Structures are given as structure tokens and as C-alpha cells.
């Protein structure tokens, strides 16, 4: 990359913008614009692939990535593993309750579906701290799966691909903004017991 291009990118560094404008305004615009751009990109991928690259838990994931990018819960480690735990726990709960092949019905939730949701959320909420991968939006992901909204292996692969894409977007955007966003996890998070 030429020096001129690097200088042009420096305009987008948060630190530089915060010297000229109120920090709160800069951070609000940064979070809002980048969350919007990230989800629009995923929506375009969903439209052209006809696959579920857009689902509710990506909203709070985008918020964490751009509002609190240096929080442990926003690190790639926590984002990717948290959602993976949610997907696997949701799928496991569907399998245990015999609902893998049952279409979702949000208007008539029966005891098996309620059990699947409770089991999935309990496993997700228990495993994330155990594996040091807390990412609150994964609680939504596990319910999406346990409710049967995304339940086929193809859907689950696409779901995780969408999480990888938004995490990669967060990495690139936060680094371009001059933030020390981690490649995998925050140094302090890796050192915690």
C-alpha cells in the first residue's frame, strides 16, 4: 500500500476523529454506520445466495463489535465460539426432544419445544463461561435453533458462515479505525484463570 493510501485511511481513525468531535458522537456514529454496513453486506449475500445469512442474533453481535470492540465478549474468540456453542446446544436440544424434523410453530409452542428451548439456553449459558467464551448474542442463536427456525445442517453451516463474515468485518473495520482489535482474543482475557 502506498503512503498516500495509508494517509487517506488515517482519516477514519477514531482517535483522530475524537480530537475534532465529541467522543460520544463519534462512537455513536461509528457503531451505527458500521452495524448498518455489516448487516447490509450480509443481507446482500443472503439475497444472492438464497441462504439465511441474516438472522436476529447478528444485530446484537454487530452492536458489540462496534460499540465495545475491546470487550472480551466482542473478541473473535468469544464471538465465534459463543455462537458455535449456541448452534450446537440448540441442535442437541432438538435431537434430544425429537424435533429435528419438526417444522417450527411459534404460535403453538408445546412442551417438547419449551423443553428444547430451556435445554438449549441452559447449555449455552453454562458452556460459554465454562469455555471462557461468553458472547450474550449466542443466547439468541441457540433459541433460533431450538425453536426450529434454522435447524437443517445446511442452515447451521450458513449461520456459522455469517458469524465468521461479521467477525471478519469487525476485525477489518476496527483495525482500520486504529483500534487494537485482537486477532483471536484480548491478551488480558487469555491470561485470566
Automatic annotation (TrEMBL):
Transmembrane segments: 25-46, 80-102, 114-135, 155-177
Domain HPP transmembrane region: 24-182
InterPro entries assigned to the protein according to its UniProt record, in alphabetical order: HPP (IPR007065), TM_HPP (IPR058581)
Keyword line: Membrane, Transmembrane, Transmembrane helix
Keyword RNA-binding tagged: no
PANTHER family for the chain: TRANSMEMBRANE PROTEIN DDB_G0269096-RELATED
Record's protein name: CBS-domain-containing membrane protein
Amino acid at each position: 500500500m502506498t503512503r498516500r493510501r495509508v494517509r487517506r485511511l488515517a482519516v477514519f481513525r477514531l482517535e483522530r476523529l475524537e480530537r475534532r468531535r465529541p467522543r460520544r458522537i463519534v462512537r455513536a456514529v461509528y457503531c451505527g454506520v458500521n452495524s448498518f454496513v455489516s448487516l447490509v453486506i450480509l443481507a446482500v449475500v443472503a439475497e444472492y445466495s438464497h441462504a439465511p445469512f441474516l438472522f436476529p442474533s447478528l444485530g446484537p453481535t454487530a452492536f458489540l463489535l462496534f460499540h465495545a470492540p475491546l470487550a472480551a465478549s466482542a473478541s473473535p474468540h468469544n464471538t465465534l465460539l459463543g455462537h458455535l456453542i449456541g448452534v450446537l446446544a440448540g441442535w442437541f436440544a432438538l435431537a434430544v426432544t425429537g424435533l429435528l424434523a419438526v417444522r417450527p410453530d411459534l404460535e403453538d409452542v408445546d412442551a417438547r419445544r419449551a423443553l428444547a428451548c430451556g435445554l438449549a439456553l441452559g447449555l449455552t449459558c453454562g458452556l460459554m463461561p465454562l469455555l471462557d467464551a461468553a458472547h450474550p448474542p449466542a443466547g439468541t442463536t441457540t433459541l433460533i435453533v431450538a425453536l426450529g427456525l434454522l435447524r437443517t445442517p445446511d442452515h447451521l453451516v450458513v449461520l456459522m458462515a455469517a458469524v465468521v463474515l461479521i467477525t471478519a468485518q469487525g476485525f477489518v473495520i476496527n483495525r482500520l479505525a486504529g483500534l487494537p482489535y485482537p486477532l483471536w482474543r484480548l491478551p488480558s482475557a487469555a491470561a485470566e484463570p
